[in-house]
Amino acid sequence: MARNTKTGNAGACSHRGTGAATAGFTLIEMLIVMTILVILAGISLALYTNSVTRAHEAALKTDLSQMREALDQYYADKGKYPATLDVLVEEKYIRNIPPDPFTKSTTTWQTEMSEPDAGNPSAEIGVYNVKSGSERTALDGTRYAEW
After folding, report:
1. Dihedral pair phi/psi, residue 30, rounded to 5°
2. What percent of the chain stands above pLDDT 70?
3. What is the SS3 string spanning the chain?
4. What mean pLDDT is reported for the chain?
5. What is the pLDDT of residues 47-79, one digit of tens each?
6. CB contact set of 66 (below 8 Å; sequence gap of 6+)
7. 74 near 81, Cβ under 8 Å?
């Protein structure tokens, strides 16, 4: 019998410790790493989606505020509300009608018309408020159409 001088075992050639059997990863190690990556990707996607929604909500609040301010300025200057939002653009109260961040359209804004003036029945009614045309629900639970 041949004697292996490194291990002291007769007739046995051991490869342990030489690195040949320990190279690479086991299937369990690969599955664990893949599971961790999927979990991290899912968390990242959820955070990204919420941040995009928050950005759209901030843009909607700003757009509504600016259009309502323009409506108030128009009323203060003319003594009446404009017949449509397009009048605000024509009269240079705003540069353009912004697209609704959720519907991506300038034509989906919901306008509220003013009540006829009891003291002046011949006065024209016009747009006194504007709201989003989106039916979606905000992160705080309210509908965008109620903002």
Report:
1. -65, -40
2. 83
3. CCECCCCCCECCCCCCCCCCCCCCCCHHHHHHHHHHHHHHHHHHHHHHHHHHHHHHHHHHHHHHHHHHHHHHHHHHHHCCCCCCHHHHHHCCCCCCCCCCCCCCCCCCCEEEECCCCCCCCCCCCCEEEEECCCCCECCCCCEHHHC
4. 87
5. 999 999 999 999 999 999 999 999 999 999 998
6. 94, 98
7. yes
